[in-house]
Design brief:
This protein has 488 residues and is an alpha/beta fold. Helices cover 34% and strands 21% of the residues. The strands form four sheets. Strands 1-2-3-12-13-14-15-16 form an eight-stranded parallel barrel, surrounded by six helices. The chain has a six-stranded mixed beta sheet with strand order 6-5-9-8-7-11. The radius of gyration is 24 Å and the shape is elongated. The two termini are 21 Å apart.
Length: 488
């Protein structure tokens, strides 16, 4: 059995041509990846099925839960083509978008998205080619928009369009997304990442297809989402700070502020939060990151993110496993900082006025007071474990669950060492198993105290109402066989 992580912040690695076979994915896992992101913007569904199958084979080999995230493409806006492939725009030029399906010229281009024109207003900004070109709308109608070019730049075929000032009247899921999410759920993914979330109803729409078979991650890429971010967070199961598009559609200097805000909102609501995009960008082609990138990852860890994500670094880069190793080392170093608890983890978040939150908050303080070697939390649906994670205790957490699905989903949550094991049916069995599993997984040692939280009656989801302190004597280990990871 592969040892548990000695790191609390989770690492998500995107799979791609540089990491699409058993050996390479296993290297990423052994280097520190806790979850794997499968990007449905590229490739065929059959290829995704093979990736999922491979990840599950690695999970079976190492007897540790591994999370799988299906990242949906979402609506992509692109211009059409030009007669000569590209044009050279100058500041002060007038340039128009329209619904005329003809090759573009120096003064216009076909924009095959009629919904955009109804959303634009005079004064709205249109960003092209990842924000490299910026235009302002002067006049608009239901089928065209005349704009003023605000800076010099080359515009070529099929470049992307961003609309920072507009709330686009689009369904949350495209036809491709619906097909992909149904495929992903059928193949047992643990998380579905919903791209370009703008409103709370986007999560509601996605939930129709996902149900409770996977968690939904709301990717915050559009400034419009910030207007209702509290409700979006409450409806989603997790947040992702997707800084790529967010940094295109709003001033770059605002992104760090938004990142901290989103982390705190997610922490307050007890939802996992991931920081993504360009974290170790230089490692696509270099074996070591820049100092600024190291600081960027460290900042995400210091400010309490549950996870940090690699994109192109692990998908198409020259050093995929090295990028994971670097991220692993940075997170461990920050977490070993004696000031980390006061500067980041303890944000003074008050527990909700529920017995379950009261118990998990008390577990953290009790573990600190008695200098416990571990907190053991029994969880069926995962809600008890997530409450414990929200508290950010300095004491290691061992989450025990009878559910493979829950074990895999909890790989996204900060600090949770999750093990699938048989359920318990009595108080005595609860205590004995907690002792045994802590020793077997080498989280604490003989002579340590451990703090246990659980719900009675046992097996009742969310009913955390027990807190118990016990000693580890060192003779608890027996020859009980571990439970294999297999689809339920």
């Amino acid at each position: 059995m592969t040892p548990l992580r000695q790191r609390k912040t989770r690492i998500i690695a995107t799979l791609g041509p540089a990491s699409d076979n058993f050996d390479n994915i296993e290297k990423l896992f052994l280097a520190g990846a806790d979850l794997f992101r499968i990007n449905f913007s590229h490739g065929k569904q059959e290829e995704k099925a093979e990736l999922i199958k491979t990840i599950r084979a690695i999970e079976e080999k190492h007897k540790r839960p591994i999370g799988i995230m299906a990242d949906l493409q979402g609506p992509k806006f692109r211009i059409s083509t030009f007669k000569d492939g590209e044009i050279d725009l100058k500041e002060g030029d007038h340039f128009s978008f329209d619904l005329i399906d003809e090759p573009g010229t120096q003064s216009r281009v076909y924009l095959p998205h009629p919904e955009i024109f109804s959303a634009l207003k005079e004064g709205s900004h249109v960003l092209l080619n990842d924000g490299k070109l910026k235009l302002r709308v002067l006049e608009r109608s239901d089928n065209s928009a005349k704009c003023l070019v605000l800076n010099n730049g080359i515009l070529s075929d099929r470049k992307g369009v961003n609309l920072p000032d507009a709330l686009i009247p689009l369904a949350a899921l495209t036809e491709k997304d619906i097909s992909d999410v149904q495929f992903a759920i059928k193949h047992g993914v643990d998380w579905v990442a919903l791209s370009f979330v703008q409103r709370p109803d986007d999560i509601k729409e996605c939930r129709k297809y996902v149900g409770n078979k996977a968690g939904i991650i709301a990717k915050i890429e559009k400034p419009a989402a910030l207007d209702t971010i509290e409700e979006i967070t409450s409806r989603a199961d997790a947040l992702m700070v997707a800084r790529g598009d967010l940094g295109v559609e709003m001033p770059l200097e605002d992104v760090p502020v938004i990142q901290r805000r989103l982390i705190r909102i997610a922490r307050t609501q007890g939802k996992p939060v991931v920081v993504a995009t360009q974290m170790l960008e230089s490692m696509i082609t270099a074996p070591v990151p820049t100092r600024a990138e190291v600081s960027d990852v460290a900042t995400a860890v210091y400010t309490g993110a549950d996870g940090v994500m690699l994109s192109a670094e692990s998908a198409v880069g020259d050093y995929p496993s090295e990028a994971v190793s670097v991220m692993d080392r940075i997170a461990k170093q920050v977490e070993s900082d004696p000031n980390a608890q006061s500067t980041n983890i303890d944000l003074g978040l008050a527990p909700n006025a529920t017995p379950e939150d009261a118990i998990t908050a008390a577990a953290r303080h009790t573990a600190k007071t008695v200098k416990a070697g571990a907190i053991v939390t029994y969880t069926s649906s995962g809600s008890t474990a997530l409450r414990t994670s929200r508290e950010r205790p300095s004491t290691p957490i061992l989450a025990l669950t009878p559910s493979t699905k829950t074990a895999r989903r909890l790989t996204l949550a900060w600090g949770l060492n999750t093990v699938r094991t048989k359920d318990v049916h009595s108080f005595e069995e609860m205590v004995a198993k907690a002792r045994r599993m802590v020793l077997r997984n080498k989280i604490a040692k003989a002579g340590d105290r451990i703090v246990i939280t659980a719900g009675v009656p046992f097996g009742t989801p969310g009913a955390t109402n027990v807190l118990h302190i016990t000693w580890l004597y060192g003779n608890e280990l027996d020859d009980e066989k571990g439970v294999k990871f297999k689809a339920e």
